[in-house]
Amino acid sequence: MAELNLAALNEAIAEVVPERDAIVFRDRRITYEQFNIRTRQLANVLISAGLGCHKERESLSDWQSGQDHVGLYLYNGNEYLEAMVASYKSRSVPFNVNFRYVDEELSYLLNNARTTALIYHASLAEKVSSIREQVPSLRLLIQVNDDPDVPLLEGALDYEVALAAASDARPDVEWRSEDLYMIYTGGTTGMPKGVIWRQADMLAAAMGGKTSKGEVIGSLEEYQERCQRIQRRYLAAPPFMHGAGAWVAFQAFHSGGTLIIQSNVKRLDGDDIVDTCIREQAEVLMIVGDAFGRPIADALVKNSREIPSLKNIVTGGAITSSNIKAQLLELLPDINIIDAAGSSETGTQAQHVSNKSVGAKTGQFTLKEGNAILNEDMTEILEPGHEGLGWWAQTGCIPLGYLDDEKKTKATFVTIEGARYSVPGDRVRLLEDGSLELHGRESMTINSGGEKIFAEEVEQALKHHSGVYDVVVTSRPSERWGQEVVAVIQLCEGVEVSEDSLLEECGRHISRYKYPKAFIYRDEIVRSSSGKADYRWAASQVEQEASA
Questions:
Q1: What is the CATH number of the domain that holds 381?
Q2: Three-class SS of residue 329?
Q3: Which residues span the domain enclosing 404?
Q4: Mean per-residue pLDDT for 215-230?
Q5: Contacts of 332 (CB under 8 A, 6+ apart)
Q6: What's CA 139's distance to the chain center, in Å?
Q7: CA distance linking residue 339 with residue 355, whole number of Å
Q8: Shared domain check, 161 and 32
Q9: How confident is the model over 297-326, as pLDDT tens digits?
Q10: Residues in Cβ contact with 534 at an 8 Å cutoff, skipping those fewer than 6 apart
């Protein structure tokens, strides 16, 4: 497995399909050969600045890193993906930085990650300037020119100038399978955490490192053979700073496919995504839940178009409700909609397919090899038909732990009968027929009168109402119940909805004790740029309503 490193894999694929397009972005087409050269150049820039691996994996604990960390403070574009691969080629560790963060959040993240270098868009330079002195570990800035009116920050390198001046020779370092991949969690319920993986494990878990039969690919030659045999075109619509978006991008790369990027990368534009799919003949479209699915459906309703090349819509990171799936299947009757369940701590755990023949469902998955359901205290594996809820766990190719957090690492990664499991917090029930019923993340539960209520369950119930455009569910203190459910709702434009009709819809899907005790209406639901619910924002809306 020593050769199965993300850097070596990029080089191997460029050998066999050098002239094939790796990335299509606006008017740029970057071949695998060009991508290989550009990532080598940037890697050599990082190495010349002293970045790389300073302590090998075997001398470290699971939660420790011996490599330099490179923050990617970028919108989608070829530079984001180049910077990821270039970091791997320098034996540094790239990580995702949320471009919506305010100064306090940004400085926290960069310090928590012990950031050595930051690659950022010029349009974000003002924020970089305001926090750079608060991050003492930061010693290299590289600015990507997406706004020619913004001057280069003092001491920073211009991205293209630096590449042009650098050697395009293969970096003189030894790549290893245990070099790190790191992804920061979103921080929508708590502080962001850096999840660290061996690259070989992440490759198998979520980056295209398995065959269609689920077998781990064991050599570079097998990847090369696959690239010569198949060629697909992918459009990953979510920000690459979100795990699902980056994972699909690398699934494209690792099968010799072409990764397409829509033109508008600073806001979600359903028409732009649809038009880019049509123009570039995308076969696979990656979205994140209803936040992406609904604007795409709206665009197709307002301007009916066919996307003859499109075969699969893959959705992950947030739930795509059954009514949105049904609408997409009416508009695009020949597609499959593939739910991909997983997390930063597990990679892809399970899939569920909806199409015209089987219908549209949400929240049920088939248990796959490496999955298990654990009992309440995480000491035993549960059998189908168990009572109550269990913890959804993953074994096999899983992370090492959380960066610099021994306590959290030991709490999330447990050992049962000699096997190590990742247990990120999803609550599930394994039914008698072997199907998996997903209830939601433990950190998003509301304890009302001793009953656990999953916010996502209530959200899905309300989303069945034809007048609800979007909803996030949170809680407020209750003298009687301890906590009670509150729904923050965005109604469809021009629609009036009674609370009685909302509760009536809830009654078709959830028990009465889970009903919202109050509804708060907003013109727009604030979500993360990846489409995930922002539960801290929802809680702030409840506080505002209480103080009004």
A1: 2.30.38.10
A2: helix
A3: 363-439
A4: 94
A5: 300, 306, 307, 310, 313
A6: 28
A7: 11
A8: yes
A9: 999 999 999 999 999 999 987 778 888 999
A10: 188, 472, 526, 527, 528
Weakest mean pLDDT among 6-15, 309-318, 328-337, 452-461: 452-461
Residue 530, pLDDT score: 67
> Using one digit for the tens of pLDDT, what is the confidence trace for 497-538?
999 999 999 998 888 889 999 999 999 998 877 677 888 899
- Rounded distance between C-alpha atoms, residue 419 and residue 169, angstroms: 42
Whether residues 415 and 521 fall in one domain: no
Q: Is residue 290 part of a domain?
A: no
Q: Residue 114: CB partners within 8 Å, gap ≥ 6?
A: 65, 69, 137, 404
Which of 220, 219, 216, 218 is closest to 204 using CA atoms?
Answer: 216
| 207, 238, 267 - which closes a domain | 207
Closest CA to 178 of 264, 92, 56, 290: 56
Q: Which helix H or strand E contains 261, and what residues bound it?
A: strand 258-261
Report yes or no: 524 and 490 within 8 Å, Cβ to Cβ.
yes
For the chain, how many structural domains are there in total?
3
Number of H helices, E strands in the chain: 16, 28
Of the three residues 207, 228, 256, the one that is the final residue of a domain is 207
pLDDT recorded at residue 80: 98
Q: What is the pTM of this model?
A: 0.86
